[in-house]
Amino acid sequence: MIAPDDMEIPLPEIKQRIHDQFHQSWHNSLIESSKLKLYRRYKQTLELEPYIDSVHVLKYKRILSQFRSSSHTLAIETGRYDNTHRGG
Predict the structure, then answer these.
(1) Domain assignments of the chain as residue spans, ordered by start
(2) How far apart are CA 47 and CA 53, in angstroms?
């Protein structure tokens, strides 16, 4: 039997593994979601967008966060739930 002390994994390896798994999960969710079709056209890498740090007013940070997470009341989002035709 292997003693627990013999199974130590260096912290950097653990962090890298977690990062890789999250990145894979993020990428798979982009591929599988029809809702993210437009998003994946413009966002292909998992990284902080520069404009996010340029917003300093809390009110606008909230609005931007709601828009980015689709938790807003714009017709493009609410129409998903009441079957509104998008047109085009």
Answers:
(1) 9-47, 48-88
(2) 12
What's the full length of the chain, in residues?
A: 88
Find the helix or strand (DSSP H, E) in which 25 lies: helix 11-32
Contact assessment for residue 39 and residue 27, using Cβ atoms and an 8 Å cutoff: no
The residues near 39 (Cβ < 8 Å, ≥ 6 apart) are 30
**Span 4-53, pLDDT tens digits:** 666 788 999 999 999 999 999 988 888 888 777 777 777 778 888 888 88
Q: What is residue 40's predicted lDDT score, i.e. its pLDDT?
A: 78
| Residue matched to tokens 């039997």 | 1
Quick check: pTM over 0.85?
A: no
Decide if 39 contacts 32 (C-beta within 8 A): no
